[in-house]
Amino acid sequence: DAIEAGAFTWRSPSNIALVKYWGKRGEQLPANPSVSFTLDTCATTTTLRFARREGPASGFSFELLFEGRSREDFKPKINRFFERIEKYLPFLRDYHFTIETSNSFPHSSGIASSASGMSALALCLMSMERKMNPGITERDFYRKASFLARLGSGSACRSVEGGLVVWGSHPEIEGSTDLYGTRYPDEVHPVFSTYQDTVLLVDKGKKQVSSTAGHGLMHGHPFAERRFQQAGEHLSELKHILREGDVKGFIEIVESEALTLHAIMMTGRPYYLLMSPGTLQVIRKIWDFRKETGSNVCFTLDAGANVHVLYPEEEKDRILEFVNSELVAYCENEHYICDRIGAGARPL
Ligand code: PMV
Fold it and tell me: How far apart are alpha carbons 65 and 7 in whole angstroms?
């Protein structure tokens, strides 16, 4: 049944990939499977207000407020998102929307907000859908929200659920699919269920390469096919590592994935160098610290200069001491964010 007006609010976290998604095909389908930790503190909160429109609807009708301010520049992206998802949510043209969104992390911090932002918006739209079709099961609600989020930004489909989330079909991971993110279904050793992620803001500047351009680089990339295959192999290895609590094995896969992502960007045409000098200094410091102390700290990177420092919760005190004494110097304005593995998106 149609509804006249209302509002829904969701808070959706960011996520950090352990095995990276880089390269896509078709309508936002991944060229390889990936797995991520859903974060907790870094999140987007979105309120979607809606009111039925009068008369025949032409285009989409919406306003966008980011941190209280109207943002015309964000509109084309939302418009494209609506165009893509309209066939799955046929009511979109019948409403006027006000999308109010804010991030828990400072904007222009180099932390991508597309994953948290697109998943929060997809969940708000699904709440509308459920109001009109209340029969939908909880499972299908989340699946479809993740499916829609994927059409906004690939990695966003991994932000709907909490914990470890897999996106992209893998023969050894039951239920995995290219269409949406699913909770990692196999046994996970407790050490991985409370992992910490301290995000060092090494360079807060705007990303040098949009992820659209980055994924595009994989078309015709000399190492693309081998890379896609490798991601699957890494996931297979990770399966045993996660079950056994093999933290050393985890470090090897996660750091290799981060460096491979950057190596792939360095070896494309055009080629990109997305680390800063500070990124490399931090990596060296982490390696030295591990060697000297036997710590299980490791790093990962997204398509930028910031460093995600990952470690088991039991090491929290000594790692934060290490961050404060050795790594904070490489952060812009000494800025870093303490995050951890989280429970996924929730309605407010
Ligand atoms: O979701 P997109 O299109 O912004 O791609 C993000 C890709 C990486 O963050 C670099 C890796 C990943 O799997 O999240």
Answer: 15
> For the stretch 178-201, what's the b/e string if a residue is b when 16 or more beta carbons lie within 10 angstroms of its beta carbon?
bbbbbebeeebeebbeebbbbbbb
Query: Could you tell me the distance, in angstroms and rounded to a whole number, from the CA of residue 211 to the centre of ligand 1?
Result: 7
Residue 34 alpha carbon, nearest atom of ligand 1: 13
Phi-psi region for residue 48, left (φ > 0), alpha (ψ -120 to 50) or beta? beta
Q: Quick one: which H or E segment has residue 5?
A: strand 5-19
Measured in Å, residue 112 CA sits from the centre of ligand 1 at: 9
Span from the CA of 95 to the centroid of ligand 1 (angstroms) = 31
Q: Does domain 5-188 have CATH number 3.30.230.10?
A: yes
Q: What is the pLDDT of residues 178-216, one digit of tens each?
A: 999 999 999 999 999 999 999 999 988 767 788 888 999
Predicted TM-score (pTM) of this structure: 0.96
- 196 Cβ closer than 6 Å to some ligand 1 atom: no
**CATH of region 194-340:** 3.30.70.890
Name the residue of 218, 302, 306 whose CB sits within 8 Å of the most ligand 1 atoms, as the mutation to test its pocket: 302
Instruction: Check residues 1 and 62 and name the one with the higher pLDDT.
Output: 62
Domains of the chain, residue spans: 5-188, 194-340
Query: Does residue 301 carry a pLDDT above 80?
Result: yes
Banded model confidence at residue 1, pLDDT cuts 50, 70, 90 = low
pLDDT interval class at 250 (50, 70, 90) = very high
Q: What secondary structure does DSSP assign to 17-68, as a single string?
A: EEE----EETTTEESS-EEEEEEEEEEEEEEEEEEEPPS---S-EEEEEETT
| Residue 108 confidence (pLDDT) | 66
Please determine, for the modelled complex, whether the ipTM score is greater than 0.85: yes
